[in-house]
Write a structure and sequence with these properties.
With about 230 residues, the chain is an all-alpha fold. Among the domains are: about 60-110, no CATH class; about 130-220, no CATH class. The protein is about 60% helix and about 0% strand. The chain has helices at about 30-45, 80-85, 90-130, 130-150, 150-160, 160-175, 175-180, 190-200, 200-205, 210-220. Helix 4 (about 130-150) packs across helix 6 (about 160-175) and helix 8 packs antiparallel against helix 10. The N and C termini lie far apart (about 125 Å).
Length: about 230
Amino acid sequence: MADNLLTAPTAGPAGVPDKFLDPQTGAVRVDALVKSYQELERRLAAAPAVPAAPASPAPASPDGYTIACDHGLFEPCPEINARLHTAGFAPEQAQLVYDLAAERLMPLIQELVAEFQADREVQRLVQHFGGEEKWRAVSRQLLAWAAKNLPAPAVDGLSTTYEGVMALYRMMTGSEPSALARGDTPAEGGETELHTLMRDPRYWRDRDPGVVARVTEGFQRLYPGGR
């Protein structure tokens, strides 16, 4: 009998698909494996990213949102919560909406409060000096005197409140003996501390008499005799 010219294929390693085996020897074709792996890696890199699921699902009802409004600007709104719930917002996402609203509103509210306080302080000055015309005249005199005799930070600090303007007026007219005579040496960083106090809501929003007095007296001690 003639020899069989066909050689039976040698079995390859278990679990390796035939396309990665040499049909003659049954050996693993490493080049085919590498090529297939590279193609798979390319397809995975091109696939769109799957958005991450929210940390938790939306509550069963809008009442399930527990919104923290520690800033005191506003309270949770049932109508807004209902709309967030309809949109499928998770509790964390709903809280973020409120946090972003507060972040945007805070500067606007501070600006409105500052404008309101400034108008109220001006009215006090108008009343004290006997009318708008007289106050405008005194205001121009104060501005010119302060620019000539005091550093800009002191003018900026004192000109924002009724008490500060009155302190400037007494300094200009020489009727502030107690503050001018003390001549205290300010502590290191005293002006920085005063500016920190001026950013305190008790100063610009509440006009706390104690805080306003500390700022006014602080600038008077820092600049007792002008430049």
